[in-house]
Amino acid sequence: MNLEEAIKSTVRDIPDFPKPGIIFKDITPIFYDQKLCSRIVDEFIARFDQRPDAIVGIESRGFLFGFLVANKLGIPFVLVRKAGKLPYKTVSHEYDLEYGSAKIEMHEDALQKGWKVIIHDDLLATGGTAEAAGNLVKKLGATVLGFNFVIGLDFLNGKNKLINHSNNITCLVHY
Ligand code: AMP
To answer: Does residue 146 surpass a pLDDT of 90?
Structure first.
């Protein structure tokens, strides 16, 4: 089975979670399969055309492959978390949601000025979260080399929000 088929046959659709009308893409069964995890990490690394200085992972499922990729490349891994979770001094960025707003944070010493980073999350939907993470990266004087997702929900056009940061957007599978 090629990687795309292997991922698609492993990811589970959960209808009406967390609310009616949403089909939640549950990636947790991927983590039961160590070989599939290794293939995913290797595929992300194979697609880099430039070595990043760090990987930035978005809470919480962006930590999973983001950290494995960073560790395999031997580069730092940086956590983006929801406001109020990180213990040290932070920079924050507030962004609009469909209803209301959300705030994310990163430790202020997590990235050095001029670094080029890859942002990781499990899934690209509207792109709002990843765009906000890109703005946080910019606030620390670093730049976004690209975005990595396991899954892209193409019908939500999330890429449009990310191209201001980078048009290097990888989704290993598309729906
Ligand atoms: P967005 O900011 O709209 O691109 O939403 C992306 C974030 O929401 C990611 O962190 C995903 O984990 C989560 N997400 C959004 N839609 C789904 C979905 N249908 N299935 C699983 N996760 C989702």
So the answer is: yes
